[in-house]
Amino acid sequence: MEHLPVTDRQADLVRRAPEEIEQIRKHALSVFDRLRNLLSGQFVQDTWGLSLVSTSHGPLAEISTPFGLVRMDLVPFVNDSGVQGRYVVEKRGVSETGEVFWRRIWSLRLNTDGQVFQGDEISGSIHARLRFTGEDIDITRIALSILYMAGKEM
């Protein structure tokens, strides 16, 4: 891999990195809280088999699924759009020798404005914070996506 010099534009993208990473972490905590609220419901636990087993207050989360344990954690990064965060979803596996490993199965991408994208999508975002009271359809879609990806044959 060739390592090219960093341009002035690229350097400008990281000038406020700590502040922007903190903004993204706050957005990830909002997503975590919305997910925690959904997964605490008896219907979701009984019907979908999803429940939060994490004792943290986010953004790190462990979720029990009928397909096995998954975990989510926030990983900050920078690209040509600026500082962002990837909420990486990994599934727990066990090797033939009995060693535990984690395999990436999906991700959410968050920007400093609080937009949340599924995977590397560039359109169709939701906002990190719930904007209206009532049923949280956006986080329901994310939870069902996690469930599907946890069970998807790789």
Give me some keywords for this one.
single chain, 154 residues, alpha+beta, seven-stranded antiparallel β-sheet, 4 helices, globular
Q: What is the tally of helical segments?
A: 4
Radius of gyration: 17 Å
Backbone shape: globular
Number of strands: 7
Strand proportion: 25-35%
Quaternary status of these chains? single chain
- Return residue spans where pLDDT drops below 50 for at least 5 consecutive residues: none
Largest sheet, strands/sense/barrel: 7 strands, antiparallel
Encode the helix/strand succession as letters.
HHHEEEEEEEH
Q: Order of strands side by side in the largest beta sheet?
A: 1-2-3-4-5-6-7
| Helix percentage | 25-40%
Q: How far is it from the N-terminal to the C-terminal residue, by CA? A: 28 Å
Overall structural class, as computed from helix and strand content, comes to: alpha+beta
Give the overall average pLDDT: 92
3D architecture notes:
With 154 residues, the protein is an alpha+beta fold. Helices cover 33% and strands 32% of the residues. The chain has four helices and seven strands. The chain has helices at residues 8-13, 17-39, 42-48, 137-151, and strands at 51-52, 61-65, 68-79, 82-94, 100-111, 115-118, 126-127. A seven-stranded antiparallel β-sheet has the order 1-2-3-4-5-6-7. A hairpin with a 7-residue loop joins strand 6 (115-118) and strand 7. It is globular. The two termini are 28 Å apart.
